[in-house]
């Protein structure tokens, strides 16, 4: 059993869709103090430690964000705040003024169960789900497989998906999905399985699931 610390139903639905067969995922609606940082991995790791200390059971935290290239990565780590304050229509309006509307979603899953992962062998033969392996590797090069010294160890899994901002289309998904287009389709026009096959969260979940099964 695995606790997914989140207040976001959309994230939970996608994690269950993905991990359903491998692990029972239970929501832990525990409000961790989300530290303000430029690095979503640091935010996720901090929350995972805090949640693990609170429940004393294996936990995952997922921190994610939308990064708009022409806006120097805004809203990035402030994506939830920008969604609440501006709303996705106005984030789209900001991007609409730019000629380059490329953007990406990034996801970081932080796992903590109080144990040290140093002795755990890395999985070999990674099965790739979704395309764009190069982009995936670019994204993982930064923060993959961190083990923090001197604090509760946290294992980090990262996922990335490139796309483009567009005027809102589609009814599915959550958050910024209606304005994020990947290969001609917005995330809000995909069902959960289709989105997981290509999304930032799906990629991070794929890495996590592969590692977690070995455990
Ligand atoms: P928890 O922290 O409780 O898990 P949250 O919604 O606050 O939930 P984050 O702090 O990670 O999550 O903020 C992520 C923001 O990015 C939030 O506004 C989401 O709606 C948005 N977001 C993340 N993944 C997304 C996705 O797959 N599709 C659309 N929007 C997404
Ligand atoms: Na949050």
Automatic annotation (TrEMBL):
A Pfam family matched in the record: Ham1p_like
EC number: 3.6.1.-
Classification via InterPro entries: ITPase-like_fam, RdgB/HAM1
Positions of region (Disordered): 119-147
Entry keyword Hydrolase: yes
Signal sequence segment: none
Residue ranges, compositional bias (Basic and acidic residues): 124-139
Gene3D superfamilies: 3.90.950.10
Catalytic class of the enzyme: hydrolase
GO terms for MF: hydrolase activity
Keywords: Hydrolase
Family membership: Belongs to the HAM1 NTPase family.
Name this protein carries in UniProt: Non-canonical purine NTP pyrophosphatase
Native source organism of the sequence: Halorientalis brevis
Lineage: Archaea, Methanobacteriati, Methanobacteriota, Stenosarchaea group, Halobacteria
